[in-house]
Amino acid sequence: MASFNEETAMREPKKRERPTGSSKHDMEVLESEDSGIGLCGWLLVAFSILLMLATLPISIWMCIKIVKEYERAIIFRLGRILRGGAKGPGLFFILPCTDSFINVDMRTITFDIPPQEVLTKDSVTVSVDGVVYYRVQNATLAVANITNADAATRLLAQTTLRNVLGTKNLAEILSDREEIAHSMQSTLDDATDDWGIKVERVEIKDVKLPLQLQRAMAAEAEASREARAKVIAAEGEMNASRALKEASLVIAESPSALQLRYLQTLNTIAAEKNSTIIFPLPLEMMQGFMKH
């Protein structure tokens, strides 16, 4: 039995694991050497250099380029990326006939995810929007591996939002926004790694519920508050009745305490400026009349 399992494991194809330095490896492959342009390419480069020297100093304005602090330039020589990757910031030199370049903005870019109609796990349709913060981490991969990195990231963020929210209940969406945002960030960051893009942050802005569901939730919340209010009122009455019981026991032990209570009540009634004052007489005063 053990030999059969070993043979089966040997026959099964192994899963390909993604190397940790895949982005660096892809960049090294894209950055080809100048020797790869061939003999014809070298002749064109030599001709471009001679043409530049012959038209000095006018050609110097076409050869020297400036890249700002937040930009990087990807230089193509006869269609191949020059060895060394992105250039900048500062000055760099190109040949007017054989070289071309593309500027890449390295600053953090933010965009809004349009409201997405999502069907939750408990079959409730909600409209959710968000915001994504990302930046270009590798300018070479952002230019060579994808046509439009910004548009691709926006579309991927929309689909990721729908996929993540589709696995959540309505209660989880309303209460676990941070967890959902963290899950979206991890998914987007892994997917855009080959594009040279780093997703820094994802935030859920607003969750809009259907009008009928809002009314149902409001009615449920109101009923819950009323139930809690009734429970609190019942507990208060119970505590008050216990206090009155204890007070009655104390008054029963000392009849003079009842007379003092009568006087306190009379003082309270007199302070309220009432026209009619009822003065309770102790029953002991009436016992003599009742005997006669």
From TrEMBL:
TM regions (residue ranges): 36-64
Coiled-coil features, chain-numbered ranges: none
InterPro entries documented for this protein: Band-7_stomatin-like, Band_7, Band_7/SPFH_dom_sf, Band_7/stomatin-like_CS, Stomatin_HflK_fam
Main location: membrane
Annotated SUPFAM superfamilies: Band 7/SPFH domain
Top-rank lineage group of the source organism: Eukaryota
Keywords recorded for this protein, A-Z: Membrane, Transmembrane, Transmembrane helix
Region of interest called Disordered, as start-end residue ranges on this chain: 1-28
Similarity comment text for this entry: Belongs to the band 7/mec-2 family.
PANTHER family per the UniProt record, alphabetical: BAND 7 PROTEIN-RELATED (PTHR10264), STOMATIN (PTHR10264:SF115)
Protein name per the record: Erythrocyte band 7 integral membrane protein 7.2b Stomatin
Annotated source species: Larimichthys crocea (Large yellow croaker)
Taxonomic lineage: Eukaryota, Metazoa, Chordata, Craniata, Vertebrata
